[in-house]
Design goal:
The protein has ten helices and 14 strands. By secondary structure, the protein is α/β, with parallel strands linked by helices.
């Protein structure tokens, strides 16, 4: 079953393009990385999928529900973390978390308290006193503590220090093992490579590549680093290995290495 499925989904803002005939499929139980630089269309895609903004053309279903006619059902069964977090500044952190659960009719707070402890959140502070990173932690707790079937997370690690990022991904992997589908947008390739099962690259509002992460890493492209007496050059090579060897043989080489490129290096090849 596809938890997310789009059909030529398009959103434009006047003359400005947001997403253009987007074709995207996310299987139930997947840990899906949605990769692209700022302005590529990641947030527009997410907001459109959640029914928060209306598409210009095309259609999509999330959890089997139409994004235009059944968005309340989508939101009920989804945990959403926006890229920018805003809460009522006068409220205490625990009041925000409890309010979020109460709106969903949930009266058990054990999971929320456990997540707060793991992320090091001070529940007695007012929201106005929180740093960007701590606001992000509160957003993570409100997105996850009701154990949704689908988690949609937009640039979730911005503002988190490395230790909190590691704990955050520990939590996400636990949720994924529980059965939740995770859709994570990011421009940080290393976190997608380390945690996601599937990934898609978006550029100028269109999906340019989508596959299992392990397949994306095995494109046949090689990273070549050549050291001569004059310089060190580094490039990605995709072609016949014998041709590469013949090319290298024409140079006065001191050292050479041929390795598999990282997902980030493959990503940059598609964007340059």
């Amino acid at each position: 079953m596809n938890v997310i499925e789009t059909n030529k989904l398009t959103k434009t803002y006047g003359n400005n393009r947001g997403i253009n005939e987007l074709e995207l499929k996310v299987l139930e139980g997947d840990f899906f990385g949605f990769i692209g630089p700022n302005g590529a269309g990641k947030s527009t895609t997410i907001r459109t999928l959640l029914g928060l903004i209306k598409p210009t053309a095309g259609s999509a279903k999330v959890l089997g529900f139409d994004i235009e006619n059944e968005k309340e059902k989508i939101l009920k069964n989804t945990g959403y973390l926006p890229s920018e977090i805003n809460f009522y500044n006068g409220m205490k952190v625990w009041d925000v978390i409890k309010y979020s659960l109460d709106l969903r009719g949930i009266k058990k707070y054990d999971k929320a308290r456990s997540l707060s402890e793991r992320l090091g959140v001070d529940l007695d502070k007012k929201v106005s006193e929180l740093s960007l990173g701590n606001r992000k932690k509160v957003g993570i707790i409100t997105a996850i503590s009701h154990s949704p079937n689908l988690l949609i997370l937009d640039e979730p690690t911005s503002g988190l220090d490395p230790l909190m990022q590691r704990e955050f991904f520990n939590i996400l992997n636990e949720e994924n093992k529980r059965g939740a589908t995770i859709f994570l947008s990011s421009h940080i390739l290393s976190e997608v490579q380390s945690n996601c099962k599937t990934a898609a690259f978006i550029k100028d509002g269109k999906i340019i590549m989508s596959d299992k992460v392990e397949n994306l890493e095995q494109t046949g492209t090689k990273k070549v680093v050549v050291k001569t007496k004059e310089e060190i050059s580094e490039y990605l090579y995709k072609g016949e290995v014998n041709e590469l060897i013949r090319e290298l043989a024409t140079k006065d080489i001191v050292d050479v290495s041929i390795t598999e490129p990282s997902l980030e290096e493959i990503f940059m090849e598609y964007y340059e």
